[in-house]
Amino acid sequence: MKRPDMSDPAPRAGLAPTGATPRRGRPRGGSGLTREKVLQTALTLVDRDGTEALSMRKLATVLGVDAMSLYHHVANKDAVLDGVAELFLAAIEPPGPTGDWREDVRALAAAFRHAAVQHPRAAPLVLTRQLKSNQGLAGTESALAILHAAGFPPEEAVHALRSVLAFLVGTLLREVSSGPTFSGQNLGGLAGRRADLKDSGFPHVAWAAPHLAACHHLTEFNFGLELLVAALEQRLSPRRAPSPRAGPRTRKAR
Amino acid sequence: MKRPDMSDPAPRAGLAPTGATPRRGRPRGGSGLTREKVLQTALTLVDRDGTEALSMRKLATVLGVDAMSLYHHVANKDAVLDGVAELFLAAIEPPGPTGDWREDVRALAAAFRHAAVQHPRAAPLVLTRQLKSNQGLAGTESALAILHAAGFPPEEAVHALRSVLAFLVGTLLREVSSGPTFSGQNLGGLAGRRADLKDSGFPHVAWAAPHLAACHHLTEFNFGLELLVAALEQRLSPRRAPSPRAGPRTRKAR
DNA sequence: GACGTAATTCTACGCTGTAGGTATTGTCAA
DNA sequence: TTGACAATACCTACAGCGTAGAATTACGTC
C-alpha cells in the first residue's frame, strides 16, 4: 500500500487486453481477481445504478469478494472511477479519414456521442473529471490529425479542438443528465412545462416556450456542431463563399 | 418533513433578499437559523473546501448548531446544494443591451464566466446538475431577448442558446476543474508536459505539443465564443459579408 | 515439511446522511 | 394566568461509507 503503483510487472502505460497474470508463475493466490475484472464490473454497476451508488463494498459483493481485496488491484475508489472512465474512452473507435475534414469532425464527434449515449450514467466520469491517463490522447490525436489535414496550423488546431470538445462536454452532459428519454424527446409533462414557461412572467421565455419546453438532444447536438464546423470553415477560407467542394489547403497532408 | 415545501408563507419563486421571518410573529423559537444563513454558509464552505468536503455536520458546526437543526430549513443535503447553486446564479447580473447583439452575447457569456471564476469550487454545482429552480430562467430570458433582438426566430434562438450554453458549460468546467492557476496559465511542469507530449508516440500530438501543454483559459473561452458568434452571424445573413454595422432586423424589439 | 510471498479476509475507526424522539421556546385563545 | 399548539433545537441511533492495519490463507519453490 505504500507504493500503490508498480504491482504490475509491465509498467507500460495503458491496460493489457486480457489475462495479465500478475506475475510469471503465481497466477492464483486467491480468487483470480484482476484489475480488469474489477473495472469491468464497476462499469456495469455504474451503468445500472449510477456513479453515486457505486461503493467499494457493493463492488466487492458483486465480485464475490471482500471489500478490502479490491485494494490489491486498485489504489482506491478514485482509481476505480478513473479506470471506468478509461474503459469508457477505450470503447470509442475513431473513424477513418474520408478526405473531407468536415465529415471527419462530424464522425469523430458522433463516435464520442455514441459512447456517451451507450453509457449515460458512466459518461459524467469522463465529462466532468480531467483524466490523467494516456487514453484520452488517442482521441486528441485523431482530432488533431483531422484538423491538420484540413490545413489548420497547430495553435489554431488546438483552439479548435478545445472549442469543439467544450461544446461536446456541455451538450452530452445535458443529454445524459436529463434522465430517461423516449426517441430522444423528453416525455412527462411537456404540455405542462410549456404552460409554466408561458406563465413565467419572462416575455421572451414565453415567446420561445414551445421550443424551450422540449429538448431533442440529437437535433441540438447537430445544430451546435454545424455552427462550429461552419465557423471553422469560414476561418480556414475567410474570403471564399463556403462551397461543398474541398477547402483550399486540403490534402496538404495525406 | 412529509411536506418539505410550503413552510414558507410566500410561495413566490425566488428568494427574499434579507430577513424573511418565516411567519408573522414567530421570529425566534431558537437560535435564529434561517434558510438564507444556511445556504450562504454552505456557499462559503464550498468555496473554501470544495463540494465534496461539504457535510451537514460541518455546516452545522460552522453555524454553531446541531446537524439536525438544519433539516428545519432545508429538506436534505441535496436541497442545500441546489440552494448554493441558486445563490451562485443569483449573483450573475445580466448586462444591459448595447444595440449590438454580438456584444450582448459576449457580455452575457462573460458575466457567466465571471461568476464561475469567482466561485470555482461551487461552479460545478451549476454546470453539472440540471436545476429545477426558476433562478435559471432569468438568464434564459436575457439570452433570448438578445437573440430575439438580433432577429432570430424562436426555434433558432433556442438552438443558439443551447449551443452557446453547452460550450460555456464545457469550457468553464474545464477551467474550474484545472486546479489553481496563475494569470490564467497553468504552472507546474509545463516544460515537462510538453516533453511528455512530444514523446507520446502520437505524431499530431507531438506536432501541437507546445500548444497542448498549456491552456490559457480566457483565450480558449474567447476563441470558442467567437466561433459561435461568427457562425450565428453567418446564419442570420447568409448572403452578406459580415459587416460591423447592425444586423438586418435589429431594433425589431426594443 | 518449511519458508517466503502474494492474495484475501477480518477487525476496527472515524466519518456520513438522516429517521425518530424529546426538550425548549414563543404565540395565541381561553 | 393557563393550557394548547406549533416551531425550533438537540440528542440518540442506525446503516452505510472508505480504508488502515493485522491476521489468515494458499501457493510456488526450496
Describe the structure concisely for a colleague.
The structure is a homodimer. Chain A has about 250 residues and is mainly α.
Describe this structure in words.
Chain A has 254 residues and is mainly alpha-helical. Chain A has two domains: 1-90, Arc Repressor Mutant, subunit A (Orthogonal Bundle), CATH 1.10.10.60; 94-178 and 215-236, Orthogonal Bundle (Tetracycline Repressor, domain 2), CATH 1.10.357.10. Chain A contains eleven helices and no strands. The first copy, chain A, is flat. Chains A and B meet through helix 5, helix 6, helix 7, helix 9 and helix 10 of A and helix 5, helix 6, helix 7, helix 9 and helix 10 of B. Chain A binds a DNA duplex (30 and 30 nucleotides) through residues 1, 7, 22-23, 25-31, 33, 55-57, 65-69, 71-73, 76-77.
